[in-house]
Amino acid sequence: MTEVIDQWPIQTEIEQRFPVKVVEVAGDKGPCGGVNMAIDTTFDVLRMVDGREPVYANNHPVHNELISQDFTRQGLVIQPNITLVPDGSILIASAHGWPLEDKELAHRKDLLIIDTTCQLVSKVNRGAERAVREGKHVIYVGAKNHPEPRGVLGGLPEGTYTFIDIDEDLPDLEGLDDSELAVLNQTTLSTVGVMEKIEKLRRKYPELDIPNPVGICYATDNRQNAVRQRLQDNDQPHINALVVVGSKKSHNSNELRDVGLNEFGIPSYLIDQPGEIDDSWFDQNTRRVLVTSGASVLPIYLRAVIKYFTDQGAYKNK
Fold first, then answer.
1. Coil, strand or helix: which one is 180?
2. Looking at the annotation, which residues are catalytic?
3. 32 DSSP 8-state letter
4. Do 282 and 312 fall within a single domain?
5. Model's pTM, two decimal places?
6. What is the per-residue pLDDT across 179-193, written as a single tens digit (0 to 9) for each?
């Protein structure tokens, strides 16, 4: 395709001031299936209750700041400590899953439980429980302080698992042989990062069991691959910067940003909405920007960011 910027002989004052001339969009749009289920279910519950009583959630139903603010305005109360949820209340379990001890406590407190755990997270959870029943030691690759690992590992007996942080070196697993190990991972990680960890484990334990090979959320994996494919496409004009629409608490959105920043070394930014964009990010060499969105982002939020660029005179390349 011919460079669009070469076809514009006349530019407005805004276009002359704003260096970005082309904005491209990579990857599917809209939330993944698990996020959609959690959003729709939470909206439905809040609408039915209509403020007559508090509705509690063990975590933000999805990691999107704008959606969470909307839920809070409608009366959702985030309470990770189930002991503080009044007996008999309504409790929404987030898409990230929750540990067995919390489920059991919720039943003892006679809570009305509405479980929106992502189907893929549930699959990983079942895989971990199956591995333990078979006498294996679970190696779980995840991110510290994320609720998903707590949900998966919280139901396993002490001493039956080892947590490996995706950003840290492998720990010492002495005393375990290949036949005793099963590897699982958090669903919102980078496929490349998980594969690197698995390859390191395979070199040390060639026969280890991987019951759910690289169980990454499909939308997360597709969008990471779409960004990689565009950034490494030498037949297309060079991308100068990456803008990911998603929240700081969203691990899959952070991983998308890191594809551009760490794998390709281009300026990469993570934002919830256009008001967070700083024009100083784009110097006169920033002519073409790639935009994508995390798996917990509504299409309207992505469209708002694209509109920001087109309002400044950039051309949207479909």
1. helix
2. 148
3. -
4. yes
5. 0.86
6. 788 999 999 998 888
